[in-house]
Design brief:
Helix content of chain B: over 70%
Structural class of chain A: mainly alpha
Helix content of chain A: over 70%
Largest sheet of chain B: none
Number of helices of chain A: 13
Radius of gyration of chain B: 24 Å
CATH topology of chain B: MetI-like fold
CATH class of the domain at 70-265 in chain A: Mainly Alpha
Order of helices and strands of chain B: HHHHHHHHHHHHHH
CATH class of chain B: Mainly Alpha
Distance between the termini of chain A: 34 Å
Shape of chain B: globular
CATH architecture of the domain at 70-265 in chain A: Orthogonal Bundle
Radius of gyration of chain A: 25 Å
Shape of chain A: flat
CATH architecture of chain B: Orthogonal Bundle
Largest interface: A-B, 101 and 107 residues
Strand content of chain A: under 5%
Largest sheet of chain A: 2 strands, antiparallel
Oligomer: heterodimer
């Protein structure tokens, strides 16, 4: 009789202990994730401006969002552009610089630090710097481009060039991917290269048949996290748009995001515009759920293709 | 970050191997690789250089195509420093980043420890939910959160809605710490338990000292996050300039000095510099932490 009793007491003690250690996060999960997420779902089916109580209005917010609200589809199109071009460029440059760093033999530490440093630049500061550098007419980048006989485009002031300008900024801060790729490249077994060299394989053939297959999980990781980041892209396009448009002051209540001509609009900016500029909380919550669904879909993809994210011990 | 350091050390060690024998000769290969390296380095460094040079020009020259300052206006930095509000933004940023980081570490370590070392039902589900929270864009839940902080607790116009949640564990920090704690062998914990330590004592006396590099990495990431955060202050503090942080105030600084690129660039340098200095200081701490645990293990 005594033995099962103590076993039960022991189990209860261990459960209590687990609950105690987990408690900060359990409270945080309920208060800052579960509750607001459920509220967001509820608000998305109501007419709500934050002053009068929410009134159920069915699918009205959703049809308004998909048919009449002028900023939603431009934001989706921009996101698609960013996913294809910006993520693509970042992965290619991240792999390129990672590869380069593994080949550099003189002062590799210095090169590595220099390549990594821009990643650390605070986004607002980096964006301001790039709006200045790429400023048409007087920006140093334009002076350099024209020095070698190239025409400098309008960058952040031209709807066709604002996303390429953001891409240049994103490629400048490619240090995070560089480090990930560098570590992956160093993990490729050296014997495979030596064997290929004996077989007379050239540099490209070795890259194509040994390097790429070995690092393909890391490429997938970089692409998927890049897609998630692209969907959440907020500070850089917003600040670039505001600064290039010459908006004065920081309150931002009057600024219609996406300058020039909605070309830098992204989904999080749409949430801000609907919620905090138009006080249409219902539709803002609908966009927030679109953002949520997209983020979670790609997160699930990431975890499915890469069990390593959770790792051993499970 | 700690993992990164070991990887980069391995990089240094391994790049020391001799150049491949075949091809157009080792010298040509060396020149090609290093020219490419210098070109890439210029791309990464020149923006910083132009930024710094412009911050030292006078008002009028900053609006021209000249790249090199005619006169070196070091006073620009003093002028930015004495701009009304700038010191307040510094103080607010340090409060947000400093207190926030402290709270994050204190609240995330026990959770990460439980997820890494306890066996309990719902552990895998908890871990999946942590990852889901980690990937959640802040905009998804911002409307209910704003209503909660601003309408129910009347805390808009302050940074508390951003700081208080950090006392309840940060998903990214929990995840990263958990990955780090997995690398600590269970034998150490078992030894402590055999010595009669409870779980809390085991965590404080045995695990914490060994997890120092992981904690340093998490603290650094969290500090950078708060330093760089723009969306949070925009939502909760935009109406009250006395509560702005550097990252948020910097943009309005540009608005107020829209023809003074030199001053804006000086302010930009002042926002970037602490992060970069901190990185150099902490990078050393990481290397030391990693080697220390290596020696002891």
């Amino acid at each position: 009789m005594a033995a099962p009793h103590t076993a039960q007491a022991k189990r209860r003690r261990s459960a209590l202990r687990t609950a105690a250690f987990m408690s900060p996060w359990l409270i945080g999960f309920a208060l800052f994730f579960a509750y607001p997420l459920l509220s967001t779902v509820y608000f998305s089916f109501t007419k709500y401006d934050g002053f009068r109580p929410p009134v159920f209005n069915g699918l009205h917010n959703w049809t308004y969002l998909f048919t009449d609200y002028p900023l939603f589809w431009p934001a989706m199109r921009n996101t698609l552009w960013l996913v294809v071009v910006m993520v693509g460029c970042r992965v290619v440059f991240g792999l390129g610089t990672g590869l380069l760093i593994t080949k550099i033999k003189t002062a590799p530490g210095l090169f590595r630090t220099l390549f990594y440093l821009p990643y650390l630049a605070p986004p607002v500061a980096a964006t301001l710097a790039f709006v200045f550098l790429l400023n048409p007419g007087t920006g140093p980048a334009g002076v350099l481009l024209e020095g070698v006989g190239l025409h400098s485009p309008g960058w952040f002031t031209d709807a066709d060039w604002s996303k390429p300008a953001l891409t240049v900024l994103a490629v400048w801060g490619v240090g995070d991917l560089m480090v990930i790729f560098m570590a992956a490249l160093l993990d490729v077994p050296k014997e495979q290269y030596e064997a290929a060299e004996l077989d007379g394989a050239g540099a490209w053939s070795r890259f194509r048949h040994i390097t790429l297959p070995n690092i393909s999980p890391i490429i997938l990781f970089a692409v998927v996290t890049g897609v998630i980041q692209a969907m959440q892209y907020y500070t850089q396009p917003l600040v670039a748009g505001k600064v290039a448009a010459g908006v004065i002051g920081g309150s931002g209540q009057q600024f219609e995001p996406g300058y020039p001509d909605k070309s830098t609009l992204t989904l999080p900016q749409v949430v801000y515009n609907l919620g905090f500029q138009r006080f249409d909380y219902g539709t803002a919550c609908a966009v927030a759920l679109v953002l949520f669904a997209l983020s979670m879909a790609f997160t699930a993809l990431l975890m499915r293709r890469r069990g390593g994210l959770i790792g051993s011990g499970d | 970050m700690a993992v990164t350091t070991t990887a980069t050390d391995a990089a240094t060690a391994r790049t020391a191997r001799p150049a491949p024998r075949h091809g157009r000769g080792p010298l040509v290969h060396w020149v090609a690789v290093h020219s490419l390296g210098v070109a890439a380095a210029l791309f990464f460094v020149l923006p910083f250089v132009f930024l710094f040079l412009t911050s030292l020009m006078d008002d009028r020259q900053a609006l021209t195509r000249d790249l090199w300052p005619h006169t070196w206006q070091w006073g620009n930095y003093a002028e930015v420093w004495h701009t009304p509000g700038f010191l307040t933004w510094w103080r607010n940023t340090l409060l947000y980043a400093g207190v926030g980081t402290l709270l994050t570490v204190v609240s995330s370590v026990p959770v990460a420890y439980a997820l890494a070392k306890f066996r309990f039902r719902g552990r895998r589900l908890s871990l999946l939910l942590v990852i889901a929270m980690m990937m959640l864009p802040p905009q998804v839940v911002v409307i209910p959160m704003y209503l909660f902080w601003a309408k129910q607790l009347d805390l808009s116009g302050t940074l508390w809605p951003l700081i208080i949640p950090m006392a309840f564990g940060d998903a990214f920090s929990i995840f990263l710490l958990r990955q780090f704690l997995l690398t600590i062998p269970d034998e150490y914990l078992d030894a402590a338990r055999v010595d009669g330590c409870g779980e809390l004592r085991t965590l404080l006396r045995v695990v914490l000292p060994m997890a120092r590099p992981g904690i340093a990495a998490v603290a650094l990431f969290q500090f950078f996050y708060a330093w760089n955060d723009y969306f949070g202050p925009q939502i909760y503090a935009s109406d009250n300039p006395a509560a702005w942080t550097l990252s948020y105030g910097l943009e309005s600084f540009k608005g107020a000095h829209h023809t003074n690129w030199n001053l804006t660039m000086a302010a930009t340098v002042l926002v970037m510099a602490p992060v970069i200095v901190l990185f150099f200081l902490a990078q050393k701490a990481f290397v030391e932490g990693v080697t220390l645990t290596g020696v002891k293990g």
